[in-house]
């Protein structure tokens, strides 16, 4: 019996990473003369595209002799990278120490612990992502990385992170029959955006690559930082992996409009995701309006909405507070 690759039995869970589906938006694109496609990265084992990066970083360290049996992996993360690393380390048998914060969803922290990771929590200011938060987490991770037998994956500086996303770019080209005209991606480390862009630009320099950052903290596009709540992006400094020659433009979208787009994605398109995905789709619709002409724009649903049920994106209290805010503004 001949089966397609997605239906074949995998020897372990790591081999289930990748080959995720792409779907076309229909309701949100009404009135636009362009197509928007969303690659559903929540089909990866932990429900996140970060599975690709985590596996690439660990296997890259193994190839280079930096990670050996009995080693302890150390990383700083808002949650999705930590969950993916915890998954990979569980399969491969490594211990994992994660530095994270209460600014990120409880579901993410619980997922990391479920896979066996040991967490160190850096307190946030009011549960928000401030410009100083990620650097503080990085400092704590650096201290843990000095312990005997420790290896820091150091995602912001790890070039294997980009290589982990090259296959994502190849999948996009294969699935759209080499007819992608633009790629839109929000960025934290920049690894995904640059890894995909490498492949797309090598195929055709005319494919537009558009990056997305929080309007409250447009560090790369405007050189200023601020507090926002789009988990996974807007880290407060220019990511070292970012390469100017691999992108064409940066768009800024706000936390509020990104959250609302995430809710609309679920209710109108059946795509259940988080705020950074909302930002991706919002920016993609703007690019679709700009390009028109039947062009094909591709973006990512980077992870599952199940990771954000306790946050203001989907919690009942969030809807209640929005109504109160509207009422207060009118009075």
Task: Give an overview in words.
Helices cover 39% and strands 16% of the residues. With 331 residues, the protein is α/β, with parallel strands linked by helices. Strands 1-2-10-7-8-9 form a six-stranded mixed β-sheet. Strands 5-4-3-6 form a four-stranded parallel β-sheet, with helices on both faces. The longest helix has 17 residues. It starts with 21 loop residues before the first strand and ends with a helix. The relative contact order is 0.15.
How far is the first residue's CA from the last residue's CA?
A: 68 Å
Shape: globular
Structural class: alpha/beta
Please count the beta strands (DSSP E, at least 2 residues each). Answer: 10
**What integer value in Å does the Rg equal?**
19 Å
What is the compact description of this entry?
This protein has helices at residues 50-63, 80-92, 106-114, 133-144, 160-175, 191-203, 219-222, 255-269, 275-291, 316-330, and strands at residues 22-24, 34-40, 72-76, 95-101, 118-122, 150-152, 182-186, 208-214, 249-253, 295-301.
């Amino acid at each position: 019996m001949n089966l397609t690759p997605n239906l074949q039995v995998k020897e372990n869970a790591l081999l289930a990473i990748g080959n995720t589906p792409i779907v076309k938006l229909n309701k949100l694109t009404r009135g636009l003369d362009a197509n928007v496609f969303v690659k559903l990265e929540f089909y990866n084992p932990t429900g996140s595209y970060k599975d690709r990066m985590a596996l690439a970083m660990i296997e890259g360290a193994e190839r280079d002799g930096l990670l050996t049996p009995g080693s302890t992996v150390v990383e700083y993360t808002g949650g999705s990278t930590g969950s993916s690393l915890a998954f990979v380390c569980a399969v491969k048998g490594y211990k994992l120490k994660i530095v994270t914060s209460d600014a990120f969803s409880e579901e993410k922290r619980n997922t990391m612990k479920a896979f066996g990771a040991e967490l160190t929590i850096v307190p946030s200011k009011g549960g928000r992502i401030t410009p100083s938060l990620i650097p503080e987490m990085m400092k704590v991770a650096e201290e843990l990385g000095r312990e005997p037998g420790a290896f820091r994956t150091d995602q912001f500086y790890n070039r294997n992170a980009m290589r982990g996303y090259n296959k994502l770019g190849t999948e996009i080209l294969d699935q759209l029959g080499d007819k992608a005209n633009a790629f839109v991606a929000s960025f934290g480390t920049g690894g995904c955006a640059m890894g995909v862009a490498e492949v797309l630009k090598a195929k055709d320099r005319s494919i537009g690559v558009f990056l997305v950052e929080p309007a409250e903290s447009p560090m790369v596009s405007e050189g200023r930082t601020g507090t926002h709540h789009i988990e996974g992006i807007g880290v407060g400094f220019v990511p070292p992996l970012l390469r100017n020659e691999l992108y064409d433009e940066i768009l800024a979208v706000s936390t509020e409009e990104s959250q609302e787009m995430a809710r609309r994605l679920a209710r109108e398109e059946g795509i259940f995701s988080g705020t950074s995905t909302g930002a991706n789709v919002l920016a993609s619709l703007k690019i679709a309006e700009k390009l028109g002409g039947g062009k094909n724009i591709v973006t990512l649903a980077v992870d599952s909405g199940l990771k954000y049920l306790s946050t203001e994106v989907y919690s009942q209290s969030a809807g209640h507070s929005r109504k109160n805010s509207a009422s207060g503004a009118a009075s």
